[in-house]
């Protein structure tokens, strides 16, 4: 039997939390550097420079890039051919987060009840999306999501006749409404199709794709480029102080949908847009 | 660069877009702490820190590692505090440091009480933490990262985002660089 222990998953989650919170991913860092070259506002350029200094300080001093170390969102793909041994997988994931947020001095931002709002004091639970996939591996994608940007996200159910223009209008309205709040230059994740919750989930998954990687579907890649160009004409700029670098990238994910519907979700993320992933293969066990 | 040393009794010399640095004492308060502060004022009590000329920083820092002052400590979104800001300005607060736009109600009250809204760079928490030299708890330890702290800052950078005349960098900047859209 091919076996993956949930202890391996816990250790992986802990490491991904550390990497995600302390190190800008190469796609985001490159995006910021490219933005410095193209930004028309001198103040905007200066802010982009400081964001790169921030990334360096965070890495050198082993500090969180941003104090909002987020609510951790975890996408887990479990290969159908493996057996998971050890404690329950969601407990293992939450334990990895608990250890990371305590050991690495990240902020605890989770409250146990939306109304009573008592802090759980260990940044758990995570939001976990699990899917069974073909194969003999476990793939974990992890994103600590800050709420300055999460709060600016929106979902709508368009009519099919509104089509691509309706989608563009909704995305632009959402970004315009977000303004300086989500710490621009932002990353915009768009989920189109499926049902209401499927669109929302796709918009989050879209944020896990590197911003320098286009959709593999030609007309969706074109939509991504059109949206990015339109967003960068809105004038919001770095921190909302005005400028031409409002977004570093727009990622769109799609799914088949119903004849009567065109669900669209826009998940806004900030200039640190943390995303890390790992694929875990089974431990070789001579007894099996 | 304009150096500011709180308490700040007069803010009329500050204009939108001015780059400033803070040297001295500021107080942290965000969502949950604001609710507590408003109930204190509603019941006729004093704030747990000096209000006259005071500066409030909207922040919930990461915990400090052993031997360090504070973890990452950048601003949070100010608009969540909009509905709880006017009573604090009435009580004497002259400046707020955060990120993002403010409501018209807050801007009108800022004009009325001569207060200024400063923006620090959102998401630059590691950078801003370098300017925080001392931090001590003032109130509500049970709120964890949302407790009120007294921070001694040196060369803490910010920009005048909305001045005492109500002029906003968010409007002016966007208009300057907007080029159509859809």
Question: Can you offer a commentary on this structure?
Answer:
The complex is a heterodimer of chains A (288) and B (182). Chain A is of the alpha/beta class. In chain A, 38% of the residues lie in helices and 24% in strands. Chain B has 182 residues and is of the alpha/beta class. Chain B has one domain (2-9, 18-178): Alpha-Beta Barrel (fumarase). Chain B is built from 5 helices and 7 strands. Chain B has a 5-stranded mixed beta barrel with strand order 2-3-4-5-7. The longest helix of chain B is centred in the N-terminal third of the chain and has 12 residues, at 31-42. The radius of gyration of chain B is 16 Å and the shape is globular. Chain B starts with a strand and ends in a 5-residue tail after the last helix. At the A-B interface, α3 and α6 of A face α4 and α5 of B.
Topology, element by element:
The complex is a heterodimer of chains A (288) and B (182).
Chain A: E1 2-5, H1 6-22, H2 26-38, H3 42-61, E2 71-79, E3 82-85, H4 89-103, E4 127-133, E5 138-145, H5 147-150, E6 154-158, H6 163-178, E7 186-194, H7 196-206, H8 218-231, E8 247-257, E9 262-269, E10 276-280
Parallel strand pairs in A: 1-3, 2-4, 7-8
Antiparallel strand pairs in A: 2-5, 5-10, 6-9, 7-9
Helix pairs in contact in A: 1-4, 2-3, 6-8
Chain B: E1 2-4, E2 19-28, H1 31-42, E3 55-57, H2 86-90, E4 95-98, H3 104-113, E5 116-119, H4 125-129, E6 132-139, E7 148-162, H5 169-177
Parallel strand pairs in B: 1-2, 2-3, 3-4, 4-5
Antiparallel strand pairs in B: 2-7, 5-7, 6-7
């Amino acid at each position: 039997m091919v076996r993956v222990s949930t202890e391996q998953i816990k250790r992986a989650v802990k490491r991904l939390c550390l990497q995600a919170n302390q190190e800008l991913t190469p796609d985001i860092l490159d995006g910021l550097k490219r933005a410095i070259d193209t930004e028309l506002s001198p103040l905007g350029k200066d802010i982009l420079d400081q964001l790169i200094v921030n990334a360096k300080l965070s890495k050198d001093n082993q500090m969180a890039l941003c104090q909002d170390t987020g609510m951790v969102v975890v996408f887990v793909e479990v290969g159908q051919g493996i057996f998971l041994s050890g404690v329950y997988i969601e407990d293992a994931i939450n334990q990895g987060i608990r250890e990371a947020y305590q050991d690495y001095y990240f902020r605890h931002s989770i409250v146990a009840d939306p109304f009573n709002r008592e802090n759980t004091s260990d940044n758990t639970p995570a939001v976990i999306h699990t899917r069974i996939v073909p194969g003999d591996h476990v793939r974990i994608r992890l994103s600590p999501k800050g709420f300055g940007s999460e709060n600016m996200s929106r979902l709508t159910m368009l009519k099919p006749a509104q089509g691509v223009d309706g989608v563009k209008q909704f995305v632009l309205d959402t970004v315009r409404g977000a303004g300086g709040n989500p710490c621009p230059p932002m990353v915009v994740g768009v989920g189109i199709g499926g049902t209401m919750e499927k669109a929302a989930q796709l918009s989050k998954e879209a944020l896990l794709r590197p911003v320098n990687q286009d959709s593999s579907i030609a007309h969706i890649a074109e939509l991504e480029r059109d949206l990015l160009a339109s967003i960068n004409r809105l004038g919001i700029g770095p921190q909302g102080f005005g400028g031409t670098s409002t977004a570093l990238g727009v990622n769109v994910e799609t799914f088949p949908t119903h004849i009567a519907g065109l669900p669209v979700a826009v998940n806004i993320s900030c200039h640190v847009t943390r995303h890390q992933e790992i694929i875990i293969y089974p431990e070789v066990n001579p007894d099996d | 660069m304009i150096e500011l040393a709180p308490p700040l009794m007069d803010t009329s010399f500050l204009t939108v877009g001015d780059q400033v640095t803070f040297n001295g004492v500021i107080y942290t308060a965000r969502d949950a702490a604001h609710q507590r502060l408003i109930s204190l004022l509603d019941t006729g009590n004093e704030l747990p820190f000096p209000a006259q000329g005071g500066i409030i920083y909207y922040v919930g820092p990461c915990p400090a590692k052993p031997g360090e002052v504070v973890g990452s400590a950048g601003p949070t979104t100010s608009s969540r505090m909009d509905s709880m800001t006017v009573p604090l300005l009435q009580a004497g607060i002259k400046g707020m440091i955060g990120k993002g736009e403010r409501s018209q109600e807050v801007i009108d009250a800022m004009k009325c009480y001569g207060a200024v809204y400063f923006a620090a760079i959102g998401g630059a928490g590691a950078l801003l933490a370098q300017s925080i030299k001392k931090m001590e708890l003032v109130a509500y330890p049970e709120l964890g990262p949302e407790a009120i702290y007294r921070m001694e800052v040196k060369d803490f950078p910010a920009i005048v985002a909305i001045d005492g005349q109500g002029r906003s960098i968010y409007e002016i900047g966007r208009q300057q660089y907007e080029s159509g859209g859809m």
